[in-house]
């Protein structure tokens, strides 16, 4: 397969037409009386019509048939572990750690049927909340497309490359890259074997780049490294093509007789995109102390309260650690935010064992956490020479201002919750002494 092309930029006004149909994008207006090549014009609105101009998001799609050509949606129970029922379990404030979630091997499971909700809060009906899912699959979607009417999907592949067909074109997303597919955008996922990853779904709004303040105009995730697909259409009569819709936490399906990836040209600023985490420009403490992990924020979905995120996507990339007279690993911590962590590659500095790629942890609101005893001892006594840390690793955090509930699947059915997690802190000894200098 030839290398895919992308458009570079974040939040830009893009336009694209499939080179097989030159002139397919109308010039000078959105809705000509007759579109070039007999296409239909369809607007996809990502914000209210009246959202302020700097927040307004919409795209115009020029397609072979409008999306409305489909049979009625019917409820479907094929994604048994997809839920927004946050009351399945009693609340549990304990530190939680999951061993790697199993990828199915004895049956064929695709991206949609492989969606499993681990935790979340809130409700898409009031457009407020998040859901954290994992996808565990081994088969490609076939004659089907998926979209969420509930929230934007930030997809973090952990094992296996995803080939994603979207209405806007094709994307390939490998582990250590992420993709964002926003509310309402239709996509299909093709996989090459056992495949696993994490999804942060936000109900409130869209992801943004964090403000940089005194960092200046450049740094962290730079806008030019975000890649959006180029128009690529399929002209195919396909009886029984299934459109899966996640709507108010449930899955619905509608059939239609044509392939929905029939967008020949499009323009707008409401688009899917991907980002390679290797491109993150790391900023950190260069003299002393441990910076808060917000310096590693890739994307944020803000709440209406200044500086407070519905959810941040934060990474812990390879970097130099150089601080003098400092306990360099993450500090002991009680947070007014919920911290869900996953591991894409390698190991995490605060816990070398136990927290494994494809697993996860949740440190809930105000629940104490921090380095395990091994990490504390090593970092309290090690020579403070410049050290490249987290080489060959990539941990990440979904940090949310919401208090999250774990689903029944997350707590019980998956059978991956480690009841002994708390033990990693029990051997932290008392070092208290009469000497001020220890
Ligand atoms: O809990 C964690 O491991 C995440 C985290 C990392 C860090 O560097 C500082 C604070 C924090 O919560
Ligand atoms: Fe923390």
UniProtKB/TrEMBL annotation:
Active site, UniProt feature: 290
CC annotations in GO: cytoplasm
E.C. code: 1.13.11.5
Superkingdom, natural source: Eukaryota
Residue ranges occupied by any Homogentisate 1,2-dioxygenase C-terminal domain in the UniProt entry: 279-432
Signal peptide segment: none
Annotated stretches, region: Disordered: 1-30
Name of the top EC class for this enzyme: oxidoreductase
The Homogentisate 1,2-dioxygenase N-terminal domain, residue ranges: 5-277
Protein name: Homogentisate 1,2-dioxygenase
Species, as recorded: Bombyx mandarina
Gene: LOC114251464
